[in-house]
Amino acid sequence: MVNCLRQEPGGNRIRCMFVSNLNGSSATPSLQPGQKSMESVLEGDLVMNVLRDGQWGSFRHQLVSHDLKEELTESAFINVLTRGDLSSLRWISSPQHRSVCISPTVQTCHVYYSSLNFRDIMLATGKLPPDAIPGDMALQQCLLGMEFSGRDPTGQRVMGLLPAKGLATAVEADRRFLWEVPLSWTMEQAASVPVVYATAYYSLVVRGRLRPGETVLIHSGSGGVGQAAIAIALSKNCRVFTTVGSAEKRAYLKERFPQLSAESFANSRDTSFEQHVLLHTKGKGQFLPQVSLTSVKHWRK
């Protein structure tokens, strides 16, 4: 609580006096200014002052050295030894994957590339607790990695989606979420496709039931999901509006998608995109039903 309060305006003035007796018989003195012990504590001007069984001390975050044994292994995954401490990222040896999996839909794939998604960053930095992930994944050692590219047991180049454990040398992947990598793609390119395109396709086509000729508004078009949504909408001959936050992002999307015109772009830093869309759709966006999924909205004609 004190750490949080210190982040607030004027928080540098906060000092804490905390009684933390371990011995139940220890007397708890009155923490009033003027007492000799209190005067010495105040003179020290420490943020955290802890009184434990008659002695004053403090709490500190100490880096603990991890005396880990290093060994050569063909099966490993990446994880943080201390949640929130990116300097503790390490390769950790894992059990060899079995050649015969429990489920007939699961097969072992060798990972060539694995992408970092925003969820991975949030988990590694400690900003997202493991129990926020659905299912029993919070009990797993490795939670990092949601997509990969590599080879299946037959040697076929594949890319796939995973609930977790993608930052590894090998993964147990569900065949239902594996796709063959096109010959014109590199494995590095393929590793960046599954999450964003599956998200955009599920939002627009499966749930939004996007049809040719409809109009789509895509916020943050230069992001991964945004680019995937633009590509899917254009492939269905839809009219696309997208918001960006800078001239550089606008120029990038114009080069990436030549089908986009100047009127396709609006500002994502304020609400001016509303009037922009209403102007170029002759007010249709204001009155017809909207579907909002992963920063995507579309209108029926």
UniProtKB/TrEMBL annotation:
Keywords: Fatty acid biosynthesis, Fatty acid metabolism, Lipid biosynthesis, Lipid metabolism, Multifunctional enzyme, NADP, Oxidoreductase, Phosphopantetheine. Residues 84-301 form the Enoyl reductase (ER) domain. The keyword RNA-binding does not apply. CDD domains: enoyl_red (cd05195). It comes from the Eukaryota. This is Enoyl reductase (ER) domain-containing protein. It comes from Ilyodon furcidens (goldbreast splitfin). The lineage of its organism: Eukaryota, Metazoa, Chordata, Craniata, Vertebrata.
